[in-house]
Specification:
The protein has 210 residues and is mostly helical. It is 72% helix and 0% strand. The protein is rod-shaped and about 160 Å long. The two termini are 76 Å apart.
Length: 210
C-alpha cells in the first residue's frame, strides 16, 4: 500500500512563527530542484517520437534542433539549359526537350493549383479559421472548468483543514492540560512521600524517647 503524504498548509503555521525554519525549507527545496530526477513519475506519459513514419520530417526536425542552415534550393530544375556541345547531339537535344516538357507540365500544374486556390481557397480558409475558433473556445471552456474545479478542491481542503485544525488544537490543549495535571499529581506525590518520611522519622524519634 502506498503511503499518502499530505500537509495542512491552511492550519500549520510553524514556518510563519519560526522564520529560520522557512529558510531551511527554501534551501532544501532549491537543493532538490537542482538535482535531476532519477526517474519520472509513473503518471508522466512516455516521450512522444515525432514523425515516426516520416524520415524526411524527422531529418528536418533534427536539422532545426541542430540550428543548421536550410540547404539552398536547387534552381537547375527550373532552367532550360541547351546542349553544351555545338551542334548538340541527339541525346542532348532529347534531354533538353524532356526537361522543357517537364517544366511546362510543372507550370501547368501550378496554374491549376492557383486556379483552385482562387476558387476555393478563401472558403476553405474561413472554414479552417472557424474550426480553430471552436477548438479555442472548447479549450478555454475546459480551462475555466478546471480552474473552477481547482478552486472548489482548494476550498474543500481549506474547510476540511480548518475543521481538523480546530480538533487538533482542542486535542493539543487537552493533552497539555492532562500533562500538567499528571505533573501536578507527581509533584504532590513527591511532597506526600517527603511528608510521610518526615512523619515516620518523627514517630521513630518519639518511640525512642518513650
Amino acid at each position: 500500500m502506498d503511503d499518502i503524504l499530505d500537509s495542512l498548509p491552511y492550519y500549520d503555521d510553524d514556518l510563519q512563527k519560526h522564520p529560520f525554519l522557512k529558510d531551511k525549507v527554501d534551501h532544501e527545496i532549491a537543493r532538490e530542484l537542482g538535482k535531476p530526477p532519477s526517474s519520472l513519475h509513473p503518471n508522466v506519459p512516455p516521450e512522444v517520437e515525432l514523425f515516426a513514419n516520416n524520415p524526411l520530417l524527422q531529418a528536418e526536425l533534427a536539422r532545426i534542433e541542430a540550428k543548421e542552415q536550410f540547404p539552398p534550393l536547387d534552381s537547375l530544375r527550373y532552367q532550360l539549359p541547351a546542349p553544351t556541345s555545338t551542334p548538340g547531339t541527339d541525346d542532348e537535344w532529347n534531354a533538353a526537350i524532356d526537361n522543357a516538357r517537364a517544366q511546362l507540365e510543372h507550370q501547368r500544374i501550378r496554374q491549376t493549383n492557383l486556379t483552385l486556390l482562387q476558387t476555393y481557397g478563401a472558403n476553405a480558409w474561413r472554414i479552417h479559421n472557424y474550426q480553430l475558433e471552436q477548438q479555442a473556445k472548447n479549450i478555454e471552456k475546459t480551462l475555466e472548468e478546471l480552474k473552477e474545479l481547482t478552486v472548489e478542491v482548494n476550498r474543500d481542503r481549506k474547510n476540511s483543514q480548518d475543521r481538523i485544525g480546530k480538533q487538533l488544537t482542542a486535542l493539543e490543549t487537552r493533552w497539555t492540560n492532562l500533562i500538567s495535571s499528571v505533573l501536578q499529581i507527581e509533584m504532590a506525590n513527591v511532597a506526600l512521600e517527603v511528608e510521610l518520611d518526615r512523619l515516620q522519622k518523627k514517630e521513630t524519634e518519639l518511640a525512642e524517647i518513650a
